[in-house]
Amino acid sequence: MNRRDMLKAVLALLVLAPLQALAAWNRKAFEAEQAEGALQGLGVESEQVSEQIEIIAPQFAENGAVIQIEITSRIPNTESIAIIAEKNPTPLIADFQFTPDAEPFVITRIKMAETADIKVLVKADGRYFSATRHIEVAIGGCG
Description:
The chain is of the alpha+beta class. The protein contains three helices and nine strands. It has a single domain, classed as Immunoglobulin-like (Sandwich).
């Protein structure tokens, strides 16, 4: 192998390795059609309801296509925050991962197919905690 071929191979590895890492998403959890399947895909065997999870979301959403929610976890050592809309065609909306020094806070916009509960799951120290919020949707946002 000459120098030029070696350089091409190294550059290809440098370019493709990060793309493969990005492609390592949790397909089983995100493609689940029921909330229980999403929980299994995330590896949730049990969860504990926690008042240390704050969900700011409207009680009534006129349009389910754009619902802004804010989530704050006050649970020490929060590793991730997942959002599940129980009646959506694919219930797992998001799964945010946090580094140890990051503030476990998320603002995002979600879509909801119909009136339902959203469940927020927080993983901290290998355990799962949850909180729910009921949102009434006038016009569904999922097709």
